[in-house]
Specification:
By secondary structure, the protein is of the alpha/beta class. 41% of the residues lie in helices and 21% in strands.
């Protein structure tokens, strides 16, 4: 029933594979050293690499596409529970424009492993443009600014002669909302704790569980600061004692202004990438009619205002940035045809004589 499914996979204490919100909460919110070895998030950053992720309870090494496949299976099963008549012969999976051949092939393998015989890949900027109602009949240019949880992508999209084209794109696999959460932990929360408590080797290598909880607290504060000018950050039940044996308990106020100053260098990097994308597209910035925001990080007022003011292009906020890519993929899927060879192979006989 939620609007989206967090891309987290893991195995619980009795061996059940867990995907989505419950897995996300076990990894970040109720984290323990045990859960650290049994849940994995942000796998998109590893697609196309030879990295393996060991899940202790499964006693198995997973390739990134195998974990991605488990997430896709979960999404498919969610659909079939509600709409059992839906065909799952084919799937549209969106990928960043910056994904190269190896990453795209790994994504396609994930779709096949998830049980979809026909996999169609669609670049996320194109999906966002379609989801926003980009009319390919009229020649125009848009900037797609995609600041998600794990990655950043920017692309210039053109419609000319009825064809949508990515003219240029820049991306960073390691700039996203999760990086902002880590900044809040490292630059704000951790120094506050160490100012009042002496703790030896207080870092995520020695206190993984505590830092996973702090990351969740940072994320909540970040989200609340999109609506409020200041929030109270309360640290308790961290499971950490200082050198005197006292529990770590602190409360302090954090403001939107402080958050803006903290993330300013990160936003500036995205703006530089946006200017580079516009320059390499060959399109004058004056001929780009609008900015379309994608990803949860673009809900931060400072990000929206800074991008619009710095680039001098009007931003359109009319479509939810969390679902615009999925909406575009759905619309794109309406125009796709499943190869007859696949339809024939999986055709279900209507009677015993067929």
């Amino acid at each position: 029933g939620d609007m989206y499914t967090p891309s987290v996979f893991g195995v619980d204490g009795v061996g059940n594979e867990v995907v989505g919100k419950k897995a996300y909460e076990r990894l970040y919110k109720t984290a323990s050293n045990d859960e650290k070895d049994n849940y994995k998030g942000e796998v998109k950053r590893l697609m196309g690499t030879s990295d393996k992720i060991y899940i202790e309870r499964a006693n198995k090494d997973f390739f990134p596409e195998e974990i991605s496949a488990e997430i896709l299976k979960s999404l498919k099963n969610d659909v079939l529970r509600k709409y059992p008549e839906i065909s799952t012969l084919a799937v549209v999976i969106t990928v960043p424009a910056m994904f190269e051949t190896m990453q795209n092939e790994a994504t396609k393998r994930a779709g096949l492993l998830a049980g979809f015989p026909h996999v169609v890949l669609l670049q996320e900027p194109i999906a966002a443009a379609i989801g926003h109602g980009f009319d390919s009949k009229n020649d125009q240019n848009w900037l797609i600014y995609d600041f998600g949880g794990g990655t950043f992508d920017v692309a210039v999209i053109s419609a000319k002669d009825g064809i949508l084209t990515v003219l240029s794109h820049y991306g960073d696999n390691f700039s996203g909302g999760k990086d902002i959460d880590e900044l809040i932990v490292d630059k704000v929360i951790k120094p506050k704790i160490l100012k009042s408590h002496q703790i030896y080797n207080f870092d995520k290598n020695h206190f993984f569980t505590a830092f996973a909880k702090l990351k969740s607290i940072a994320e909540t504060a970040k989200i609340e600061l999109s609506s409020y000018e200041r929030v109270a950050i309360e640290i308790d039940d961290l499971g950490v004692k200082d050198r005197e044996g006292n529990d770590v308990n602190i409360t302090f106020t954090y403001t939107r202004k402080e958050l803006n100053e903290l993330i300013s260098p990160l936003v500036e990097r995205t703006l530089k990438a946006s200017r580079d994308a516009i320059k390499s597209s060959g399109v004058s910035i004056h001929n780009i009619t609008k900015i379309i925001f994608v990803g949860g990080t673009t809900l931060i007022p400072y990000v929206r205002n800074r991008v619009e003011e710095d680039l001098g292009i009007e931003a359109d906020f009319s479509v939810n940035p969390l679902t615009i890519v999925a909406k575009g993929a759905a619309v794109y899927g309406l125009g796709q045809r499943i190869p007859s060879s696949i339809i024939d192979k999986f055709r279900v006989p209507t009677n015993a004589n067929e």
